[in-house]
Amino acid sequence: MGLGGASVKCIVDKRILRLVESVFLPERTIMRIALSIVLLLVIGFIGDIESRRGRTRSRTKSKFQIGLPITGKYRDPESDKYYNNNNGAKIALASHFDYEYVLGHKIAFICVARGNPRPHITWFKDGSEIFTHLYLHIHEWQIGNDTIKSKLEIDPATQMDAGLYECTADNMYSIDRRSFKTDFSIAFD
């Protein structure tokens, strides 16, 4: 094996060696046990490194759940009736999910919802509701009796504008939502 008794004693705790030697095991058996313990420790260390590797590749870390449309069948008939109501708010058109913007330029998201009564659209960034201010504008257009179009514009875009945006449409029958992930890039002119 290439390991002498002295090097094994350096690797394995002296207390373990004394305990094993007190049982009168042959030195060859002691070396095998020590080598097995060392191999198990090395394998455990490599496995720990491999398990952490996949978690570090994300560009943006968000602690908020990505809002996907609420669809499917529900166990409770009342829930099924609520979420699948024909008059319920449904987002008919929305911007792309992943958006990379250039610093200093405009960001624009669109959300079109339909329902009866006409839904109300609310915008969120990283889980908090956002409102119009000097650099962020929300425009709304009512189309017909049952549709609303909402546009979120940020001009000029900064690093602080990167994050997870969400458009939520709701009326008395249901709620629907879409999310948009943004990250910035730097343009060199």
From TrEMBL:
Matching PROSITE patterns: IG_LIKE
Record GO biological process: homophilic cell adhesion via plasma membrane adhesion molecules; synapse organization
Keyword terms of this UniProt record: Disulfide bond, Immunoglobulin domain, Membrane, Signal, Transmembrane, Transmembrane helix
Gene3D superfamilies given in the database record: Immunoglobulins
Transmembrane region(s): 29-49
Protein name: Ig-like domain-containing protein
Any one annotated GO CC term: axon
Natural source organism: Dendroctonus ponderosae
Residue ranges annotated for the Ig-like domain, each copy included: 104-185
Biological classification of the source: Eukaryota, Metazoa, Ecdysozoa, Arthropoda, Hexapoda
InterPro entries linked: Cell_Adh-Cytoskel_Orgn, Ig-like_dom, Ig-like_dom_sf, Ig-like_fold, Ig_sub2
